[in-house]
Design a protein that fits this description.
Arc Repressor Mutant, subunit A; ABC transporter involved in vitamin B12 uptake, BtuC; 75% helix; 3 domains; mainly alpha; 414 residues; single chain; elongated
Length: 414
């Protein structure tokens, strides 16, 4: 049977991960950080009141209620500052530091006079999953189902508000109420995570799974699903590592979530850093190949020494490119020099044709001086596709010469 601690942690991470994409899409990731820190005064007061009226210890509900009220007051304060021309990032930073400072001040007053209360407060600052029982799991399950139900029920207006706020306003969607609903759901998800991850690390579980999901998906439902999956896995693996190595689970949960985000940023197929580097390297490689072919077409057979002067790259890399061109059947070597094959000449003619067509377009239709068109054409010749070339040629009425009076290779002869 799964331990209640693991269940509660997974539910906490699931609920927070579901709200993270909303903050990420709206570019208000600092809002989660501000609201999580802003709930600290309410948590402190909730703990104090619970010890005043309940002898056995802090009441779970009083802490949740206190933290929720404090976070909601933070939302009201942020709106007030925005109406008084305070930038959003400034308002968020001010509320974050101000509310958290108040909570620290109240807690510091209790450190010597009421050490038991102070220790209880520290549980919510850094998280303490070991003390959670089935009761907490039940409460977290109810809260999580409420969050999922709210997102499902209001998905359409929330989606429209996130991506087309002007249109949403024009068709009568109450965007202010939707905005406030999102903020309240974020507050609720923060309260769920107080006992597990703690106030300080809560924002990590709001944003890290959403960041990881955003690199792998583009549609909001898919982002929601992947974010929830990464969040749940973070909670499970964080507790697993905590159990295996006797380390605090809260930081480990945040670290696992951050590792999901980092791995996604580095290795996502379309947007990952390493795959982008590979695409950039492949494009530069193709550009150099095409430039070599163009040089051979213009200047005829060339020895390796001349290539080194024209293409300032490492000799081994240049040798590799020439070897690949020979393997592709575009270049051959004869008497110590490199020259084009018939297929290589056709390939080079296509590159020259695109180059000169683009020069005609820049000079005749954009009014750019003839002396300035060459550099742009050098870049565009590697980008324009065959379909784009046909449309460009039709648009230019199939010109025969470029602005420098050089003949443009015709499609029939290539």
């Amino acid at each position: 049977m799964i331990d209640p601690v693991w269940k509660a942690s997974c539910l906490m991470c699931l609920s927070s991960a579901l709200l993270g994409p909303l903050l990420l899409v709206r570019k208000k990731t600092l809002l989660g950080e501000a609201l999580s820190h802003a709930c600290y005064p309410g948590v402190v007061i909730g703990v104090i009141l619970s010890f005043m009226f309940i002898r056995d210890g802090a009441s779970f509900f009083s802490v949740l209620l206190g933290g929720g009220i404090s976070s909601y007051l933070a939302i009201v304060s942020i709106d007030f500052l925005k109406k008084n021309r305070v930038p959003l990032d400034g308002a968020l930073s001010f509320i974050l530091s101000g509310f958290f400072a108040v909570g620290l001040f109240i807690a510091s007053l209790l450190q010597r006079s009421h050490p038991k209360i102070y220790r209880e407060i520290q549980c919510y600052l850094l998280g303490q999953t070991a003390t959670m029982v089935d009761f907490h799991v039940t409460i977290y399950t109810i809260f999580t189902l409420f969050l999922i139900g709210s997102l499902f029920l209001f998905y359409r207006p929330i989606h429209t508000f996130l991506f087309q706020s002007d249109y949403a306003k024009s068709i009568g969607i109450p965007i202010k109420k939707i905005d406030r609903l999102i903020a309240i759901l974020v507050v609720l998800s923060i309260q769920i995570g107080l006992r597990s991850v703690g106030i300080v690390l809560m924002s990590a579980m709001l944003i890290a799974p959403a960041v990881a999901a955003r690199q792998l998906a583009y549609r909001l439902p898919a982002i929601f699903f992947l974010s929830a999956l990464f969040g749940s896995c973070s909670g499970f693996l964080g507790n697993l590592l905590s159990f295996a190595y006797s380390l605090p689970p809260g930081p480990l949960i945040a670290i696992v979530g951050s590792m999901f985000a980092l791995t996604s940023l580095l290795f996502a197929p379309k947007q990952g850093f390493f795959f982008r580097l590979m695409r950039i390297g492949n494009f530069k490689y193709r550009c150099l190949e095409e430039n070599v072919l163009k040089n051979l077409w213009k200047e005829g057979p060339l020895p390796f020494k001349v290539f080194r002067k024209k293409h300032p790259v490492h000799p081994l890399f240049l040798t590799f490119i020439l070897h690949r061109l020979i393997q592709s059947g575009w270049v051959k070597k004869s008497k110590g020099s490199y020259l084009l094959t018939k297929d290589g000449e056709m390939k080079a003619l296509k590159i020259v044709r695109i180059h000169r067509l683009w020069e005609v377009y820049l000079a005749d239709h954009l009014g750019i001086g003839v002396e300035k068109v060459h550099r742009s054409a050098e870049e565009m010749e590697h980008i324009i596709t065959e379909e784009m070339e046909k449309k460009l040629s039709q648009f230019l009425s199939h010109p025969l010469v470029d602005p420098h009076a050089q003949p443009i290779p015709q499609q029939e002869g290539i």
